[in-house]
User: What shape does this take?
Amino acid sequence: MSRTALPTTSLPLGAAEPGRRLRVAGLAGGPALRARLAALGLLPGTDVTIIRRQGRGPLVVDVRGSRVALGRAVARHIQVVPTEPAPAV
Amino acid sequence: MSARPTIALAGNPNSGKTTLFNQLTGAHQHVGNYPGVTVVIKEGFCRRGAEDIRVVDLPGIYSLTSYSPEEQVTRRFLLDDQPDVVVDVVDTSNLERNLYLAVQCMELGLPMVLAFNMSDVARARGLEFNLQRLSALFGVPIVPTSGPKGEGVPELLTAALAVARRERPCAPAEVRYGRDVEESLERLQRPISSGGTPGSLARARWQAVKLLENDADVWKAFPDPELRALVDRERALIAERCGDTPEIIIADRRYGFISGACSECVRLTVEERHNRSDRLDALLIHRIWGLPIFLLLMYAVFFIVFKAGGPPTEWLDHLFATLKDLARGGVPGGGSVLWRSLLADGILGGVGGVLMFLPNILLLFTAIAVLEDTGYMARAAFIMDRLMHKLGLHGQSFIPLLLGFGCSVPAIMATRTLESRRDRLTTMLIVPLMSCGARFPIYALIIPAFFPAAWQAPILWLIYLLGIALGVLCARILRHTLFRGETTHFVMELPPYRRPTLKGLARHAWDNARHFLHKAGTVVLVFSLVLWALASFPRAPRPAGAAGDRTAAAPELAQSCAGRIGHALEPVLRPMGFDWRIGTAMLGAFAAKEIFVAQMGVVFSVGHADESSEPLRARLRELYTPLNGLCIMLFMLIGLPCMATVAVTRSESGAWKWAALQFGLLTSLAYLITTLVYQLGRLAGF
Assistant: This one.
């Protein structure tokens, strides 16, 4: 599978590329984490974009127009599907 | 409606709710703990014509679940206190997310008004709202307001009062959750309303929703096993039919309702909002530069606290010294020697010794307020997450730890936001290592007494950093021994950067100063008097003309109760280089850390009643070396968490053993480190 193609399988948010439009496919994790993500508007079907990712630190993600910081462990619990091809660099 | 209507302000963090609250109530407000819980709720009053109106500022939250104490408090207030009207403050530049809370408030069926805050900012950025249509869709009045300028506030008050008096219609729209969930709700509502808990139809529906969402608080309210079994069946049914858990399905429907309304009534260009913030973030939370910038900012804070706070602190010091002289004998016929000593040494020496640091405290909290109000604090948590994660903690622990720099008590309470008990206990145990505001007077007394001006800020900075480093180390050790297991999750909003308002900063600083003054007038005063009494009785017969030699222990003090306790402690304290005087002051420090300073004032005043008062620092310099000074600060930084801290650790952890562990662990660590530093320092010739 080439990197520019639109994959149909989901991948964890932490592994996705910054700047690319992603759609949340599923949320794992405990009820408290899921409730917190839901309160911040991060639900299956929501479009998100990674704004900033640094090394093994937390991510900054655009969710419904707000910036949300997510720890690495959290990002592993969020499955996403890219909804557009990778931006031409 | 009661004679005095109550308006409850709800809203997301950073929605501008507090600014609005200040505009509504002006100076007429006070901070109070809601009974039974410890999250702070602010209450204020405003007048409208002849009418008195109570305004309650609820904590900023995103949702009405029961996962965080803030959410629980807000919910309990809305349900139990039944405010006459709820004003939900909505940040219009982040509309959908803010309306999520609004929709949940609507589900409670309370009379409600939406305050569309910062609307002019949003409009300037190309946002257009059809408020009339939006208001019709939501079934509640909407009033545009603008936080900093106070526009729309009178109109908001008018609308809120009209709704509270039922003069203006308010029928919050009902969110429909789709066929499967609605069917389950219907099946649940009947046994709920017959189950004994009284409430309206809207309340029964809300409870049914909460039960489907697996809400712990509501679950507890329905112990009936039959109903519980039904809830479990319905939850399983929804999960099977909709492909996800009911809470996610329900949240999704709420957002669906909001998106539908917004797509009809709002034209949005949200991206605009973050351009400047994203650019700033590129630097401030940079992978490499983020941490040095954070450390530099912290250093700047301490530099300002000392540099700008120095002169006013000295004026206050002189003022109290003058007052002490007057009390001692400057005023003719001012009562007996004992009364003069009580006034001069007990009250002025004790309380005055603490009060003189008010300028530093004000500056410290103003600086913290600047970092908070600009939105930088959330970034600091972000930067620290990477570091904290390596230590087995996570960014969210950083918030309670940060609060710990103010006071350990609210900081330990704030650990409630942590989900796992392991994280909570670990964080709770290390919170006292974050140097609290009460310890500041100790540093402020000692550092200028022993160290040249150029070293003062760096030493203070290092003391704070040492506390952080030890906290981090202890956390790591705890996570590898007592509290093994996975860390909880870091999820946090990074609000756009904002320019703080002068008014907001002033209020922030004043709130903290008031707390400090209150403590000085109560706990510190009482303990100063107790310690003064301990230091003054039993009184030794005073040989004529014995005054003068102050480097030798004043015999009177040595004879007193405090002196005896201090002497009894001396063998234990000796390895750290502490004498019996410091030992007596430590007794007080257990009550509240700043009492250490007060008590040093008392210790050095008692027995010298007939001499002219001399600044405490000069006396310290005579008796102790800079190494002694450093050791005092180390011990006070690390060990001996105060009474209030021990008590709150006990209540928050639910067991004395954790409070005992915290006290024992920190005090032995302090003993170990201070002894080591003192002995090595001695060897090195200091």
